[in-house]
Amino acid sequence: MQELHDAPLAPLTTFRLGGPAARLITATTDAEVVAAVREADDAGTPLLLIGGGSNLVIGDKGFAGTALRIATKGFSLDGTRLELAAGEVWTDAVARTVEAGLAGIECLAGIPGSAGATPIQNVGAYGQEVSSTITEVIAYDRIARETVTLTNAECAFSYRHSRFKAEPDRHVVLRVRFELEDARGLSAPVKYAETARALGVEPGDRVALGDARETVLKLRAGKGMVLDPEDHDTWSAGSFFTNPILADEAFAAFHARVKERLGADAVPPAYPAGEGHTKTSAAWLIDKSGFTKGYGTGPARISTKHTLALTNRGGATTEDLLALAREVVAGVHDAFGITLVNEPVTVNASL
Questions:
Q1: Which one is catalytic: 114, 131, 236, 239?
Q2: Residue 95 has what pLDDT?
Q3: Of the listed 160, 163, 175, 301, which one is catalytic?
Q4: Which of 4, 54, 274, 314 has the largest CB neighbor count within 10 A?
Q5: Could you read off the pLDDT of 66-85 as tens digits, one per residue?
Q6: Model pTM score
Q7: Is 343 considered catalytic here?
């Protein structure tokens, strides 16, 4: 294991923000990960886990404990069964499954971060979620002090949520297992309307795997959602806020606010989200509240390509970013009565 002290953490995040860690350990094997976690737990030292850093907002004062960077490697295919080490680069793993002719995660191409983070957030985009293909998660249980294997059901997946997110200090993901589909070079049925339009097909159709992946990458790049060191519009955590899910009564009140603010003919985005619930669009809410693409005058601004992405234009601090996020949250609440929830994890920082 590599060990550094007073180590910068900003370069390990896609925001490129945050102060240093008192101690930074880089682990390249599962055994090293477990050993580092046990050592910190035994000593009572605060522990911060870092994968790809794409869903992380670290405070300007940094982290006064041990930061553990999980850099394990491992990509294994057995028929349609895929196993990934937690430190594998997610978008590279997706590309390899497409090359192997296997469907199920092709529309998750271009999502930054590591494989181990995907079950925590139940990563999803363009009609796919990892919960649809994950069969098991191998993790170190910090309470039981042993490595455990959790089934899909035991992971308690829901929209951008899981058991791991609900109990953030309990499990350290080591490996993730998936069951993909051999559809003879075709994708899973295309579910997302935007993707279907871009591909020139109807929702439910299948297309060539490579076409599905390339189309999603182009859509993401057009929204600044594919990492590019030269493009500050990608210095972000992707979508900063989750799409609100409202109970029927709350959605009716929201609908009334929309008509009052935008006119009798205004109709907000609405998607089924389980019995008695409707999901609406955080990006739509932000835009209609007056926070358009490129909003802001300081070093932290809304992306010029997508209203859901808050970006570091270079030279920003974490507090600059959080001030912008707070402004957006307050504005949306004032306009529509909905409180947006941040998607990235905050460390020594809060909205």
A1: 239
A2: 98
A3: 160
A4: 54
A5: 999 999 999 999 999 999 99
A6: 0.91
A7: yes
